[in-house]
Amino acid sequence: MRWEPIMLDILSFEKVNESLKKLKDAEVAEDLLYHGEICLRYGRLPLSLKAFQKIAKINAENFNAYLNLARIFLHLKDYEETLKNLEKVYKIYPSSFEGYILYKILNERQTIQTGQPLFADFKTSGDEVSSLEIKIQLELSAQDEQISACAELVEKTSDPIAKYFLKAAKDRKALFLEMENQFVKLKDTIKIEGEPVYTEIKEAKDMLKDVLEEMVKVKSIISAAVITQGGKIIQSAYGEAGENQRIYSEVTPSLSFIDKWIKENKFSSLDLCVLSFEETLIFLQKVLKEYWICTIASGRVNFGAVKYNVEKNKDRIEDILKSR
Amino acid sequence: MVDFDKALESFEKISGFKGALVINSKGDILHQFQKEEDRWNAILLLYKELAKHTQAISRLVNNTFREMYFEFEDGSITLENFQEDRVLIITASKDANLGKIRLEIRKMRSLE
After folding, report:
1. pLDDT for B75-93, tens place per residue?
2. Which residue of A has its CA nearest to B80?
3. Smallest CA–CA separation between A196 and chain B, in Å?
4. Is a pLDDT exceeding 70 seen at residue B40?
């Protein structure tokens, strides 16, 4: 359910509240924010106040509710409540412009409490706008049109703080532009250095699969895989005989044990390992320092033929793994 | 039946041959031909551990285990499974004549 601004302005808060019962909290808060801002714009302060108070009740972290409450209390010249709500805004969103105002206000708190508030300079009647309203219009998104519109408003006010906010907004806009330029430059850098690497990784996996699939095309070879020293299968390909995951799960602990055994007994590094059964051959060839090409062959297989097949593809696999 | 003592002597003249051992599946040394290998304890440890995995694979592929071959940077270890619970372990240097070693193993197998 969404509200028509004009309707919002004439509806009583109770009626609005009744309709909102059917909505979820987040939706209620969203609609109330809209409702409250419209009411505020049309000078319906009590309605607006109720709306923002309800938002704050639904979500105590909604800094927009407190910011608008501060605006309302400022209109109502209740400076203590203005301050309280600005404190909440500052706690939720310390890096906001409101945070800066609060800092300024806190420094002059004593002045406020003794009846000589900082807000005394604010003009809220007639066509003149308060510095806080200018600030609010410039908050978060200091767009060019908003800055131009506010500049016109600032011309009409004698409020020095309004002038300060306009300057701050212009500075912030300049800062945003600078940040945006930096970001664009950074994005270009990422594009140049980052994207090819990503493409290469993607290609590496596909290329590895291609090589392994080529290896299993040899009649006696039923499976080929690249596994890490720790036993993780990086890529595998299976021939017509199907998967051999269970064999790999027995082979990989052997590799881990051998690695530990070599270190403990000061043997030189293992380059090749063959486990031969009557009609099955498991051929493990080390590539680089941390990978193994594991080939499983079946039938009356010739050790030399399997070795030839692995050696033929070893360099290609090594190159692909290097590029990962 | 293989005469292991006699067979092991035939390895002596092969270049790069370092030593040979015949053990049973429990790891007891039954025959030994020592040339320059002195790391038998470590090699037996390797065999005992890997035998567990080869037995499991053997069940998976429904085949009898025959051989394990390890090629290190500076040499090799061959473990051959023979009948009557005998395992032949041969160690050789990097430049060993592996063809001749394999020929002798084949000769031994023909006597099984």
Report:
1. 999 999 998 889 999 999 9
2. A276
3. 36
4. yes
pLDDT, tens only, A250-271: 787 788 888 888 888 888 888 8
pLDDT (0 to 100) of residue A174:
64
Mutating which of A223, A262, A267 best tests the B interface, going by the most B Cβ atoms within 10 A?
A: A267
- Which residues in chain B (69-108) have CB-CB distances under 8 A to chain A? 69-75
Task: Provide ipTM, 2 decimals.
Answer: 0.91
Q: What is the 3-state secondary structure (H, E, C) of chain A?
A: CCCCHHHHHHCCHHHHHHHHCCCCHHHHHHHHHHHHHHHHHCCCHHHHHHHHHHHHHHCCCCHHHHHHHHHHHHHCCCHHHHHHHHHHHHHHCCCCHHHHHHHHHHHCHHHHHCCCCHHHHCCCCCCCCCHHHHHHHHCCCCCHHHHHHHHHHHHHCCCHHHHHHHHHHHHHHHHHHHHHHHHHHHHHHHHHHHHHHHHHHHHHHHHHHHHHHHHCCCCCEEEEEEEECCCCEEEEEECCCCCCHHHHHHHHHHHHHHHHHHHHHCCCCEEEEEEEECCEEEEEEEECCCEEEEEEEECCCCHHHHHHHHHHHHHHHHHHHHCC
Average pLDDT, chain B: 87
Terminal C-alpha separation, chain B: 5
Residue B69 and residue A282: Cβ atoms within 8 Å? Answer: no
Average pLDDT of span A25-32:
68
Non-local CB neighbours of A286 within 8 Å, separated by 6+ positions: A269, A270, A271, A272, A292
A63 close to A99: Cβ distance less than 8 angstroms: no
